[in-house]
Amino acid sequence: MNYIEVTIKLKPFRPFNEIVVAQLSGLPFDSFTEDEDEELVKAYILEGDYVQTDVENVLSPFEDLAKIKFTASKIEKVNWNQKWEENFDAVEVGEFCCVRAPFHVERSNFTHEIIIEPKMSFGTGHHQTTQMMIEHMESIDFTSKTVLDMGSGTGILAILAKQMGAKEVVGIDIEKWAYENMIENFDRNNVDITACNGGEELIAKIGKPYDVIIANINKNILLGQLPTYNSHLNTGALLLLSGFYETDVDDLIQAKELDGYALIHQITKETWCALKLRKGD
């Protein structure tokens, strides 16, 4: 089947390139590429899945904040592996962690190396929120800890927690494609992690208490799920939150479910933010 290439012109390019990719990831797009010099984001979707009004509805809320124009054209079948290899670079977080694709050269000068098959741009480690979560995780002793990675995506953060010595790690994602990719990446990195396809309801169904919960989603989902996180975190446990903007921080830390939590550290990259909190008595 042929693909539709949606070309989106953005001015300013940043941070709206990240916002547009995040929003379009909720539609059945297979891949995204970016050209900052040309101020373009390109998104690829099967011809049968493309609905123009869906794209319009995603982009319209941002039209007062940026100049956004998009066009759509049909293209012949694409070698997606080749396209990714042309556009995908390894991600380095200091000397602590490198996230790379199987076609990249092995990196031996990092404490941790994670190999991810780059099937979508969200979940490859390029987004600021993922990088900030990795920075938070560097300062945590995961030895013998139980960890939940909520909205695990490709499984990067779950893999890192296991590599850092976590006793048991559970990765949950509501998207079927993410769940399947997560399993592939767990096998690729030789880590024993429980992968689950579903939403918040699985936390209660599994019924485990956790020493660390990692949730890189978005503000509204986080606010809705905080009661469940709280009821499944041990006293003194850590809660890592990201996927939201710096302007959303007050709404989160003032949520009644986080009464008694101490804000340990806050990281901001561009407009995005990540929090590390500790649950009190």
Keywords for this entry:
Rossmann fold; single chain; 9 helices; four-stranded antiparallel sheet; Alpha-Beta Plaits; seven-stranded mixed sheet; 2 domains; alpha/beta; globular; 281 residues
Give an overview in words.
- The protein has 281 residues and is α/β, with parallel strands linked by helices.
- It has two domains: 3-79, Alpha-Beta Plaits (2-Layer Sandwich); 127-279, Rossmann fold.
- The protein has nine helices and 14 strands.
- The protein has helices at 16-24, 52-59, 80-87, 128-138, 156-163, 176-188, 201-206, 219-231, 249-253, and strands at residues 3-11, 29-35, 40-46, 67-75, 91-93, 97-100, 112-115, 146-150, 168-173, 194-197, 210-216, 233-245, 261-269, 272-279.
- A seven-stranded mixed sheet has the order 10-9-8-11-12-14-13, sandwiched between helices.
- It is globular and about 55 Å long.
How far the N terminus sits from the C terminus, by CA atoms, comes to: 57 Å
**What would you say the CATH architecture of the largest domain is?**
3-Layer(aba) Sandwich
What top-tier CATH class of the largest domain fits best? Alpha Beta
Low-pLDDT segments, ≥5 res: none
Kindly state the mean pLDDT as a whole number? 88
CATH third-level topology of the largest domain: Rossmann fold
* Element pattern in H and E: EHEEHEHEEEHEHEHEHEHEHEE
Treating each run of at least 4 consecutive H or I residues as one helix, how many helices?
9
CATH superfamily of the largest domain: Vaccinia Virus protein VP39
Which descriptor suits the 3D outline?
A: globular
> What is the beta-strand fraction?
25-35%
Instruction: Please describe the biggest sheet, giving its number of strands, its sense, and whether it closes into a barrel.
Output: 7 strands, mixed
Indicate the percent of residues in helices.
25-40%
